[in-house]
């Protein structure tokens, strides 16, 4: 099975906080935050042992980081967020937290985390060269946690890049406590979960995908809008402007250089101006459509198909959603075979039923190997090595032997 896959429609790292004991925090990653939260709260099968404690439920998903160019990229960020005391992505002189103790093995022991420490390290990770140019977005579902973030931003040594979006996605409250680490009320926890509105599929890409398919299928690539050389059909990496009224097509390298003309020291663009329609284009949007066109035949077919029919009968919208969810789980299971080629890295323990990963942040050195998952998923790990090559990003997998619980 090939490792190449399109840039994922959605994959996030998330910060979980207990609504009963806010000092209990947890970081994980998932392509399906709603389903994952239901698992953590015992409403669906699966989940992590430590989030299974009745004394900590319900959990709230306080914030998520999205926009990763691949599943591996998300796992890289997740591990660095969990292990800021040893991750190679943070220079030693820039570390906020340090390992003051050692395990029995002699390896550095992970410091105990809190909401404040995780947010401060998140801010730091968004500024380091490894991640600062990624098309990331931080979305807050908890007003209290967002206030803690804002407080840290005012004291941080440097601001994060303007290209990283910070989104408030919670019901505001005039009576919210000024102490951002106060216990969140049960009602607040219920209201804060606006995650159900997140688009975790490729539906937003459909107009761009349809246009690109039409151009390529009818061999209307024409000439590169930058170097003006003819674009031979099916003979290279060609980018297509996402604006529906523009049919600008260009070599991937030409568009990259066009976007980076004022940033000579950078390798990967963030955004730029279309050479034809002059509209601002986000680089990852262009490359995501390219990755779907080259690597995502299955995803494109699913995206563009019409009314769902099952066993000769029409299917309602809600039934179709359930079927799609089942298919998504099947797609995640396909990653199991691929991870066998990456086992040497051993940087994540993964639930192959959902494609999720989990790691305890604020407790002891105990392993999370007793996670509540199927026997099948206990024996395997899953992730995908996609999107990084298309974006021109370097894959750096850190050795996590120093953290037994990872």
Automatic annotation (TrEMBL):
InterPro entries: GIY-YIG_endonuc, GIY-YIG_endonuc_sf, Slx1, SLX1_C, SLX1_endonuclease, Znf_RING/FYVE/PHD. Pfam families: GIY-YIG, SLX1_C. Residues 9-91 form the GIY-YIG domain. Its cofactor is a divalent metal cation. This is GIY-YIG domain-containing protein. CDD domains: GIY-YIG_SLX1 (cd10455). Forms a heterodimer with SLX4. Keywords: DNA damage, DNA recombination, DNA repair, Endonuclease, Hydrolase, Nuclease, Nucleus. One of its GO terms (biological process) is double-strand break repair via homologous recombination. One of its GO terms (cellular component) is Slx1-Slx4 complex. Residues 100-112 have a biased composition (Basic residues). Belongs to the SLX1 family. It is found in: Nucleus. It comes from Hyaloscypha hepaticicola. One of its GO terms (molecular function) is crossover junction DNA endonuclease activity. Residues 92-112, 350-379 are annotated as: Disordered. Catalytic subunit of the SLX1-SLX4 structure-specific endonuclease that resolves DNA secondary structures generated during DNA repair and recombination. Has endonuclease activity towards branched DNA substrates, introducing single-strand cuts in duplex DNA close to junctions with ss-DNA.
């Amino acid at each position: 099975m090939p490792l190449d896959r399109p840039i994922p429609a959605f994959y996030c790292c998330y910060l979980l906080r207990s609504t009963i004991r806010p000092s209990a925090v947890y970081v994980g990653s998932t392509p399906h935050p709603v389903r994952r939260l239901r698992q953590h709260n015992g409403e669906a099968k699966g989940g992590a042992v430590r989030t299974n404690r009745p004394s900590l439920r319900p959990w709230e998903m306080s914030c998520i980081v999205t926009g990763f160019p691949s599943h591996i990229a998300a796992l890289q960020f997740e591990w660095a967020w969990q292990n800021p005391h040893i991750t190679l992505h943070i220079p030693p002189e820039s570390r906020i937290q340090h390992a003051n103790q050692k395990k029995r093995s002699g390896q550095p022991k992970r410091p105990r985390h809190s909401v404040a420490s995780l947010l401060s390290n998140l801010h730091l990770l968004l500024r380091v060269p490894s991640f600062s140019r990624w098309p990331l977005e931080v979305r807050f579902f908890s007003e209290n946690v967002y206030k803690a973030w804002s407080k840290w931003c005012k004291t941080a040594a440097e601001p994060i890049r303007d290209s990283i979006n910070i989104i408030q996605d919670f019901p505001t409250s005039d009576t919210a406590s000024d102490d951002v680490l106060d216990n969140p009320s049960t009602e607040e926890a219920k209201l804060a979960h606006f995650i159900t509105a997140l688009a975790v599929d490729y539906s937003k890409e459909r107009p761009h995908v349809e246009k690109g398919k039409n151009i390529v299928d009818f061999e209307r690539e024409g000439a590169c809008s930058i170097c003006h050389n003819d674009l031979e059909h099916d003979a290279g990496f060609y980018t297509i402007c996402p604006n529906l009224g523009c049919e600008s097509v260009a070599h991937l390298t030409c568009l990259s250089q066009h976007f980076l003309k004022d940033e000579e020291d950078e390798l990967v663009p963030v955004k730029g101006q279309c050479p034809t329609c002059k509209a601002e284009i986000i680089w990852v949007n262009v490359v995501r459509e390219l990755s779907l066109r080259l690597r995502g035949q299955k995803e494109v077919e699913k995206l563009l198909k019409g009314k769902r029919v099952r066993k000769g009968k029409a299917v309602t919208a809600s039934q179709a959603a359930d079927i799609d969810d089942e298919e998504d789980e099947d797609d995640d299971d396909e990653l199991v075979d691929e991870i066998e080629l990456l086992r040497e890295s051993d940087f994540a323990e993964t639930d192959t039923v959902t494609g999720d990963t989990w790691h305890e942040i604020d407790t002891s050195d105990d392993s999370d190997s007793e996670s509540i998952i199927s026997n099948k998923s206990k024996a395997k790990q899953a992730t995908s090595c996609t999107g990084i090559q298309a974006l021109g990003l370097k894959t750096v997998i850190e050795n996590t032997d120093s953290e037994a619980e990872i």
